[in-house]
Each structure stands twice: as C-alpha cells, then as structure tokens.
Write a structure and sequence with these properties.
286 residues, DNA Binding (I), subunit A
C-alpha cells in the first residue's frame, strides 16, 4: 500500500502544479523584468505568515508564462528543466534582481513572523514549535531516504499482498487508484490458500533476496566507514551473543567441590549452598 500512496501523492502534486500554471497570466516582459512587489504573507487570523520565495522561485514565476508561450504543448517536467537550465546559465549580475527580491521578501517575512508570535498564547506557541519540529523531522527523514537511495541500499522485501496487487493492478477496473486497490484487497481475501501460494512463495524468495543483498550492503558500509547506516539490531544481537557467552563461562566456574567451604567471614557452608549463592549472583548480574 505504501507504494501506491506515494504514487497518489505524486499525482496530486502534479495536479496542483497544473492548477498553478493555469492561474498564471501571460506576461509580456523582457527577460530581466521588474520584480513584482512582495505580497502580504498573512496575519494572525489566517495563521502564520507563509515562507518567502527564494531567488529561483521569483525567477521561475516570471519565466513560466514565457516558457508556455515559447514552447506550447511541451510537458510540465520539460518546461521545468528548461527554466532550471536557463537559471544555471545566468550570470550573478543577471540573477541580482531576483536575489534582491528574495532578500526583501525574507525581511518582510521575519517582521511579520515576529508580530505573529507576539500575538500567540503560550499554548499556541507550543503548538507552533511542535509543528516546526515535525516538519524538521520529515525533512531529515526525506534527506535520509535520498542518501540511502544514492548509496544503493536494497529495497525491502514485498509482501504477498503487495506482489498480488502489483501483478493485477493494470487489469483491474476502477475509476481511481484507491478504488482499484480496495477491489484487489477484497479479491485477495476471497482467494484460496492454493491461489495465494504463488504470491507467498514469491514473497519468501524476495525475503531471501533482501537478506543476501542487505548483508553485502552493510559489509560495504562498514568498509567505507558508514557504520551509522548499519542496522542497530544486528549490532545489538552480536553484543548480546557475546555477553551470553561470557555468562556461560562464569557458570562453568561454579564450585563443585564436595564437603564444606570456608567463606571470608569464617563461616562454613556446604558446596550446595555455595553453588546456590553463585547461581543467585549470576542471576543478579543478568
């Protein structure tokens, strides 16, 4: 289900992008035109002020209408690439108006944010900090996923249900992606054990594939000094195994001599009592 959720999110983002393009009016300006005045970011009634645009965002906002007019029928992705390439080829002097617009927008944002914070109650301030913390955590997780992808971390094994949905999705009728997925989940519930066995076997094979690939990948991470990316459970299991081996050796040293044994206090105890005391001490250590 995770795979299809990600695809759905991407589709929604594309729809929003198209909506933005339709709302942009066609401007007749030269390449370096006057930058529009900074817009009002919001008020305490509407929530916190929106973050200011970067210099590239100001440039892209100006270039979209021009790109649409010069390249009719070109896909949105290709237009984005053209605009990005154009930005990279610009000199610092050509970028200066957009940089100055970004600086002005940042100053306005900081001023409005201070006003906004001054009007908040302690509870609202705490909620704002928590929201900021969650956003930072999401960004950190996103950067982590990109890093692992660039380092070639193996994909996690798929379940039998996910394999079944992936194989049958194209042939399933449904108006939306979610509708198709729900239909396939109902079909999966009604399948017999023998019909599911094919996908269960594929899932087991995928587990073996993942186990072998992740082992090799983690060994490579240790070689390049990235032990921080190795699964902690693996390290923990190794440490636990070594501790258990040490405890077994201490149990082997348990006194087995018959008769009595004198302690440091001068008391006499039987070997059985000494053995019990040793076992208790060992359990306390555990």
């Amino acid at each position: 289900m995770l795979t299809f959720s990600l695809v759905s999110a991407g589709a929604n983002l594309l729809v929003k992008s198209l909506g933005f393009l339709q709302s942009v009016s066609v401007l007749r300006r030269p390449f370096i035109a006057a930058i529009p005045a900074a817009r009002h970011f919001g008020s305490s009634m509407d929530g916190p002020p929106k973050k200011p645009k970067t210099s590239y965002m100001h440039f892209a906002e100006q270039q979209w209408p021009i790109a649409l007019r010069e390249h009719p029928g070109v896909k949105v992705v290709d237009l984005s690439r053209k605009i990005g390439q154009k930005w990279r080829e610009m000199t610092p002097e050509q970028k200066r108006p957009f940089v100055e617009a970004s600086v002005a927008a940042r100053e306005q944002y900081n001023a409005e944010m201070e006003q906004y914070k001054a009007q908040l109650t302690p509870a609202q301030s705490a909620a704002l900090k928590e929201e900021r913390r969650e956003k930072m955590a999401k960004r950190k997780a996103s950067r982590k996923r990109k890093e692992l992808k660039n380092l070639g971390k193996p994909k996690r094994p798929r379940t039998a249900l996910i394999i079944f949905i992936a194989d049958s999705f194209a042939e399933t009728k449904g108006a939306t992606m979610i509708a198709k997925t729900k239909t396939l989940m109902e079909v999966w519930k009604n399948l017999s054990d023998s019909e599911k066995q094919v996908y269960i076997q594929q899932a087991e094979d995928d587990k073996v594939r993942y186990k072998n690939e992740i082992k090799s990948w983690e060994e490579h991470m240790r070689e390049i000094g990235r032990e921080d990316l190795v699964r902690r459970t693996v390290i923990k299991v190794k440490k636990t195994a070594s501790v258990k081996r040490g405890k077994k050796k201490s149990r082997v040293r348990t006194i087995k001599t018959k008769g009595t044994v004198k302690s440091a206090a001068g008391k006499e105890s039987t070997a059985t009592e000494v053995s019990k005391t040793t076992r208790k001490a060992t359990k306390a250590e555990e």
